[in-house]
Design goal:
The protein is mainly α. It has 19 helices and 11 strands. 46% of the residues lie in helices and 10% in strands. A hairpin with a 3-residue loop joins β5 and β6. The mean pLDDT is 94.
Length: 456
């Protein structure tokens, strides 16, 4: 096998969604498994939509996931530059070379003419493809804007995809395609071929949505005499609506999950299993890279499973220390001991913050809650609880249950009429962890303070 060099090449036109994160993971795994290099390349030739802020956000998300690249726009390397916008002169030079060799030509067809051609082909039930009108122009216009088209030879393109196996494409399905636009910017297919060859990329691992680009790219590799990488096309990741996951599924971007309180190890373990089964439970990046194999990738599309993500995240939260979680959540999160006591009930950091709030900020009792606490039975329950607590010298979870039992015997209340007034007065909420645990965590003095405050 040639020296392994993989690349992740996002377009900085939006947030990093989970389908792209999986592509980055699989490329990183493969490079690490084979002692190779993982390259970050920014494909920013879409001038109108590419933003430096998106590039920075993508890099930040990759680092948050734990993916470190060996070469890239921020750290350089021996094959740069690593932004396509900084390589435009390379592409134009290669295009001129193809024109000089009779393998490409300038096309002067207007947008109107191309639209008319497309409409006529659609009306005839024919595939949309350029008809080659400018292929052999004798007297081309001297001032008209033009594009550069690659002259597609009529042949069958065959290759072996490392996921799908042997594949064949007939070039009659597409016409001579644009490699340099009228603005002088290289097309995706042209730029990516030149970059992959010049950066000596050995393996291209990407989504199935690029499968139709592969025959065009193979023709370009051949025409320029460049070494072809091995291709692996991974079936797409689907959202809950069963459509391919994309930037419009904003809640399932890496940033969306970060903001939603998910930990990187949970995201990694969920995303890596979209089309691949490592055969083990939750593991780290390095262990996953040792297990990764292209021949174990599924040929079928995978649906993102939020339930699996929450399960992995709950496990990840459990494994983190209270001090570590406090640092993640920031000032005001609560003590490490309190966090350790509550973290087992949370599936996300957001949920954990919600569980902590009644202990760190006190109960927030609105008008509706105050009306409930003003009921005669509720006042009787709280008065009895206060008396029991004032008599108690110390409290653990067992004695807290004894206190509740004593209040039950003294008031004759049970079930919701017994427990809800206590929970509301102590936490301001109707739901939460077991009431005896709430009482133990608050402690005797804090409960007395809160009960007296609720009386006012």
């Amino acid at each position: 096998m040639r020296t392994v060099r993989t690349r992740f090449a996002p377009s900085p036109t939006g947030a990093l969604h989970l389908g792209n994160a999986r592509t980055a993971l699989f490329n990183w795994f493969f490079a690490r498994r084979h002692g190779g290099s993982f390259i970050l390349r920014i494909e920013d030739t879409d001038i109108a939509r590419s933003l430096s802020s998106f590039e920075a956000a993508i890099c930040d998300d990759l680092k948050w996931l734990g993916l470190v690249w060996d070469e890239g726009p921020d750290i350089g390397g021996g094959y740069g530059p690593y932004r396509q916008s900084e390589r435009l002169s390379i592409y134009s030079g290669k295009a001129e070379q193809l024109i000089g060799e009779g393998k490409a030509y300038r096309c002067y067809c207007t947008k109107d003419r191309l639209q008319e051609l497309k409409a006529a082909q659609a009306a005839a039930g024919a595939p949309s493809r350029y008809d080659g009108r400018c292929r052999e122009l004798v007297n081309p216009p001297s001032v008209e804007p033009s594009v550069v088209r690659f002259l597609v030879p009529r042949k069958e393109v065959a290759f072996t995809d490392l996921v799908h196996g042997p594949l064949k494409f007939d070039t009659s399905a597409f016409g001579d395609f644009v490699i340099i636009g009228s603005d002088g910017v290289a097309s995706y297919n042209f730029a990516v071929v030149i970059d992959d060859a010049m950066m000596e990329v050995s393996h291209v691992i990407r989504g199935d949505d690029h499968l139709s680009n592969t025959p065009r790219q193979l023709l370009l590799f051949e025409a320029m005499g460049l070494k072809t990488p091995a291709f692996s096309h991974v079936p797409l990741v689907l959202g809950a609506d069963r459509t391919p996951l994309s930037k419009r599924h904003g809640e399932f971007s890496v940033k969306g999950l970060r903001d939603g309180g998910y930990l990187p190890e949970a995201v990694i373990n969920t995303v890596a299993r979209l089309g691949w089964d490592p055969g083990v439970g939750a593991v780290g990046l390095e262990e996953m890279s040792h297990l990764f194999s292209l021949d174990k990738l599924s040929r079928s599309a995978s649906a993102f499973d939020e339930g699996r993500l929450k399960s992995f995240n709950k496990e990840a939260i459990q494994k983190r220390s209270g001090d570590g979680l406090a640092a993640l959540m920031g000032p005001g999160a609560g003590s490490a001991a309190l966090i350790d006591a509550l973290k087992g009930n949370a599936s996300t950091l957001k949920e954990l913050e919600g569980l902590l709030e009644p202990f760190t900020t006190g109960p927030r009792i609105g008008e509706a809650e105050q009306a409930e606490l003003s009921e005669e039975y509720a006042r009787k329950v709280l008065s009895s609880l206060l008396s029991e607590l004032e008599r108690a010298t110390s409290l653990d979870e067992g004695s807290c249950k004894s206190v509740i039992e004593a209040v039950k015997n003294a008031t004759g209340e049970k079930g919701r009429r017994l427990l809800m007034p206590i929970r509301l007065a102590l936490t301001g909420r109707h739901e939460g962890i077991e009431l005896a645990r709430v009482m133990k965590l608050l402690g005797r003095d804090e409960m007395i303070r809160r009960l007296k405050k609720s009386e006012k």
